[in-house]
Amino acid sequence: xxxxxxxxxxxxxxxxxxxxxxxxxxxxxxxxxxxxxxxxxxxxxxxxxxxxxxxxxxxxxxxxxxxxxxxxxxxxxxxxxxxxxxxxxxxxxxxxxxxxxxxxxxxxxxxxxxxxxxxxxxxxxxxxxxxxxxxxxxxxxxxxxxxxxxxxxxxxxxxxxxxxxxxxxxxxxxxxxxxxxxxxxxxxxxxxxxxxxxxxxxxxxxxxxxxxxxxxxxxxxxxxxxxxxxxxxxxxxxxxxxxxxxxxxxxxxxxxxxxxxxxxxxxxxxxxxxxxxxxxxxxxxxxxxxxxxxxxxxxxxxxxxxxxxxxxxxxxxxxxxxxxxxxxxxxxxxxxxxxxxxxxxxxxxxxxxxxxxxxxxxxxxxxxxxxxxxxxxxxxxxxxxxxxxxxxxxxxxxxxxxxxxxxxxxxxxxxxxxxxxxxxxxxxxxxxxxxxxxxxxxxxxxxxxxxxxxxxxxxxxxxxxxxxxxxxxxxxxxxxxxxxxxxxxxxxxxxxxxxxxxxxxxxxxxxxxxxxxxxxxxxxxxxxxxxxxxxxxxxxxxxxxxxxxxxxxxxxxxxxxxxxxxxxxxxxxxxxxxxxxxxxxxxxxxxxxxxxxxxxxxxxxxxxxxxxxxxxxxxxxxxxxxxxxxxxxxxxxxxxxxxxxxxxxxxxxxxxxxxxxxxxxxxxxxxxxxxxxxxxxxxxxxxxxxxxxxxxxxxxxxxxxxxxxxxxxxxxxxxxxxxxxxxxxxxxxxxxxxxxxxxxxxxxxxxxxxxxxxxxxxxxx
Length: 765
Fold this sequence. Notes:
Layout: H1 2-14, E1 20-23, E2 31-37, E3 52-58, H2 61-76, E4 84-87, E5 93-97, H3 104-107, H4 109-113, H5 120-139, H6 143-146, H7 157-175, H8 181-196, E6 201-204, E7 213-216, E8 219-222, E9 229-232, H9 234-241, H10 250-264, H11 272-300, H12 304-323, H13 330-339, E10 360-367, E11 385-388, H14 409-418, H15 420-441, E12 446-453, H16 459-475, E13 478-483, E14 488-492, E15 511-515, E16 536-537, E17 540-541, H17 542-552, E18 557-562, H18 566-579, E19 587-592, H19 599-607, E20 617-621, E21 624-626, H20 630-635, E22 643-648, E23 654-658, E24 664-669, E25 675-676, E26 693-702, H21 704-709, H22 719-726, E27 732-735, E28 742-744, H23 751-761
């Protein structure tokens, strides 16, 4: 239990266990936060006066150590940051002051949602924050501070180049527009030179934004500063005032700059005109960086929040380039103009300024008898369409259907034979199709449909499910269908080809999922500083071996899950793209599990929106080296099996059990005698190897329909447990390959074996 580590640290620090521990909502980082309450009956416990503190668990120990050390140093300089109380010996968790739950981002929500119409209270708090910034930058400016910064202490050319390339590869190239790379690089060279020529230096917070300002007892406190470093003071001003979603009016932005400069005078003198000229260069740099982040999170990972932020960032880019008339960047200005125009859409029926489909359609079934009433639109837009299904024949009146729902085949057959529901849905489809197309054309992001019937069990469930499948099939958009009274939710992810060629088959453009999130504890001490996926074999990280092996086999989309040192894997993938242009058509996508490790089955369920839902997925453990033909294995799913598992006859303690037709029927732990599923009588012979006992390789292929059934499973589960449940209803087959060889790079003593294996099979692997 993860929270137990925090409880232990609390007890060691304050002398008693907390009376309550509450897990807080996930943030964008790989850290988990908990609110701990002091025991009410124990006055001797030396907790802070509020009685609550925040406990943090983070997998990145270097980042944890940086935050803790910087917080102590800042507090010693009387800067408004959270107090820190204790850190565990292994630096995986720490305790800090509870600053409440209201961030500046929350505080100014009303003005932000009103398009930048901030009231007096919101403006006053923004002025306070900008007046604080110089003290954070200058009071914290010392070599003693910089030595604690993570991941590096200084803003340098490497930092600038990384962020500019982030924009080029993660955003610009994904738009599909033509551009002259040499002209772009020439302007990147000049921008880099200008940024690094600035004299005014201090502690560059780097992530100075409204979400990282907490309001406590009426004043702002500052968090998430561990990514800071020595650098130009302009960067944080640009980061805060040109945040894409804030939409600060020009007049307010200038007032806030004046407040900042007035406070800065205590430390350094700089005239307004010079400051603005240099600031605009950093606004340009920061905007390019932000677009790169939006491209990665939105266009690659398909996260709607980031897609929706792109138009505002493009407006910022166009405006700031226009303001640089004294030091123009003509080619970037040319590109900004092209980016602001509607582009040919890669998705049928999609809309928006970049040609992606930002729309999510939510469809509900519900009961009119429920006290919850008609489902509410939680998107903030209000409205939506509500259809009453009670005019059609009700299967619930017949005894044989009372315990079934509109998802069961017997009810589906009844409704379709009767025909009334089909006539009803014909009109619904026409209305829905028209509005979905209009919403796509106009770049809208949310649309809602609800179907009600007497019990929310038969007719409404059938109608909601069929409209969801109809819209997903026709438009390829993201659809979420929720059967409220049944407690079931299904998600149909956005697909790049909503009308796939039925004759294409699985042999074309295969996709794969590399499981790379593991902690790699058996490879310590190597994995104390790097993820298992980046442990080198023959001078090449394990992850690179797998990517190149899959690419050589024709896989065009590869999803990689991350957890332990996940940011290192992200950095590796980015650098790999830059350095290996021969794989320019290869999609490398990240499934982020830094907040919680989800086990092998949960990882596939979590990553499902990143897959093409019309094709099988090959799943491959990152630490398995072998000589199998992956393309041939992928094709095995054509044979009618819901999943194909690569297995072999080798010694292990845990075996999969197959019948004479190589269908999975069970699992057995030879050492303990445990058998799954319960009640299974394993077939003879009892020897571990031979007969129906085969060892799993960590390589398998799942059909799209089998992946879809994972939506009813919890977030965290084992793929073996999933297969053992599914095999009772579906064909889960074992595949053996002649002369199959593999090495499981799981322990330090297997590295030498892995090196020898790679050398003996080169260039196969």
